[in-house]
Structure formats: C-alpha cells, structure tokens
Amino acid sequence: MLKKVLLIFVVIVALGIGFLLLLLRNIPYNWGHHFDFINELNIEIDSLEISVCDERTMLYAHSDSHIEGNIGVPEEGSPCDVNLKIFSNNEIINLEADSFDCYNCDGYHQYILQKTGARYEFLH
C-alpha cells in the first residue's frame, strides 16, 4: 500500500515539474541592455528616466547613489535618439545624450552624465 502511494506521489510531482518546465520554456524573456550611469554632475541623483527611441525606463539610485540597471531598447529603428531626465531633490534636469545603435550587443554600456549632456561608451 505504501509503495502505491509513494509511486502516485512521485508521478504527480514529475508531471507537475514537467508542466512547469513546458510553461517556462514557452515564455519569452527579454533581459534588456545593462547600463551604468557615471555621475559627473556634482549633484545627488535620486532616479533617472532614460528614453531610447520610444522605450522609456525608470532607474533608481542605490543607497550609495550609484545608478545601473537593464533598460528597454527597441528592436528596430536604430540609431535611436536618447534623452535622460534626471530627478534630484525635487528638481528635474533634462540631458541630451549620444544616440544608441547597439541592439543585442553583448557587453556593457554606460553613459557619463555631464552638464553638457550624456556621453555614451560601450565597454567590452
């Protein structure tokens, strides 16, 4: 009797795991593009909004005021205009940025935030 119950339990668990794996395999996941933002503005940044073409992503500063994260980038339409909206102590600063033309590039990206605008760099 115990062997039958254990066998039924193992079969149900195996079917459940198989069903979950089937579902997860069919759900597309977009990792995005990882960006670092180097702050040379000499202000404390709370958060920023980056717009690449029509894709907007909001990123928040970590406890050490470092800002990084994955952003959405459109598959088509490159090169894209990039605009940054910096939020700092109830003040909003709009920065023009170098254009972005690197969909699905394997590497890291960064923008250096300066008073004259944001300069793009591709890192390895």
Strand content: over 45%
N-C termini distance? 61 Å
Structural class: alpha+beta
**Unreliable residue stretches:** none
Counting DSSP H or I runs of 4 or more residues, the number of helices is 1
- Please give the order of strands in the largest beta sheet: 4-1-7-8
Strands, total number = 8
Main sheet makeup? 4 strands, mixed
Work out the radius of gyration. 22 Å
> Element order, helices and strands?
HEEEEEEEE
Q: Give the overall shape, derived from the CA principal axes.
A: elongated
Helix content: 10-25%
Average predicted confidence as pLDDT: 84
Task: Describe the overall structure.
This protein has 124 residues and is of the alpha+beta class. 19% of the residues lie in helices and 46% in strands. The protein contains one helix and eight strands. It has a four-stranded mixed β-sheet, with no helix packed on it. A hairpin with a 2-residue loop joins strand 5 (80-88) and strand 6 (91-100). The model has no long low-confidence stretch (mean pLDDT 84).
